[in-house]
Design brief:
Elements lengths: L1 H17 L3 H14 L4 H13 L3 H14 L3 H13 L3 H16 L10 H14 L8 H9 L4 H14 L2 H14 L5 H12 L3 H14 L4 H22 L6
Helix pairs in contact: 1-2, 1-3, 2-3, 3-4, 4-5, 5-6, 6-7, 7-8, 7-9, 8-9, 9-10, 9-11, 10-11, 11-12, 11-13, 12-13
Protein name: UDP-N-acetylglucosamine--peptide N-acetylglucosaminyltransferase SPINDLY
Subcellular location: Mitochondrion outer membrane
Pfam families: TPR_16
């Protein structure tokens, strides 16, 4: 029937997208949504593909279509992430609060709200209230409710680094590394914090640890490369032409 055909098109479109054939995957996912307009998964995947293609207005139109079919909290979360990309932080925060409320209304109550939702709300509020002493309030709440969630620890640590609370940020990154030892990002973020403290040796050591955990971590390569370039430039600038020995 129509439902089986829509699901088959969804799976085929997803496979093509993951294979790098984005336009073909998009067409099949749109066909899936046309066959069964209430299939939220297809609508969200189309919106996500338009986000990946940097066609944000088209993505928003598909999020609207998804909300016409369902009041699923996932739609609000994904649309909020797009609003954050567009730097429309107040709209993002509004969607995240809607997402949180719909999770709380479910069988899990307040405990049913995913940590990612609260962490992303923390980001939106931090960006929205840059001059406010309360801008960390939401991420602090997320950390209180999800003390060992890696995403919360990383986001909170990044914000503390931005406001200059390096000691607390580094403690959060250490905890993130304990909770998720196979993730390189706690070491990358700690390295960046040490760079802000002008402790280049500690920064370099942490970028190296990130690469030991994940030899394909592009962020660690980029940060380590930039650090080495800056040090080389500083030596050249300070050393003049006295390299003849």
């Amino acid at each position: 029937g129509e439902e089986e055909a829509a699901l088959a098109l969804n799976q085929a479109g997803t496979f093509l997208y993951l294979s790098g054939r984005i336009k073909e995957g998009l067409r099949l996912l749109q066909d899936s949504a046309a066959k069964r307009p209430g299939l939220v998964n297809s609508l969200l995947k189309v919106a996500g593909l338009y986000c990946d293609m940097d066609e944000k207005e088209e993505a928003l139109a598909w999020f609207d279509r998804a909300l016409g079919a369902s009041d699923s909290p996932d739609i609000y979360l994904h649309r909020a992430q797009l609003y954050l990309m567009k730097n429309e932080n107040r709209l993002a925060a509004n969607d995240l609060r809607r997402c949180e409320a719909r999770h709380e209304a479910g069988p899990g109550g307040e405990e049913g709200v995913p940590a990612l939702v609260r962490a992303t709300l923390g980001i939106a509020c931090f960006k929205m209230d840059m001059g406010s002493p309360l801008r960390l309030r939401q991420i602090e709440r997320a950390h209180r409710l999800h003390p060992d969630n890696v995403e919360v620890l990383l986001f909170y640590g990044e914000m503390l680094t931005q406001v200059g609370d390096f000691k607390k940020a580094l403690a959060l990154f250490r905890r993130a590394a304990e909770v998720s030892p196979r993730c390189p990002l706690p070491f990358v973020n700690a390295g960046r914090a040490y760079l802000s403290l002008n402790d280049h040796a500690a920064a370099r050591a942490h970028f190296a640890r990130a690469l030991a955990v994940d030899p394909l971590c592009s962020a660690a390569y980029l940060d380590l490369g930039q650090l080495l370039l800056n040090r080389a430039a500083a030596r050249q600038g300070g050393g003049g032409g006295g390299g003849g020995g």
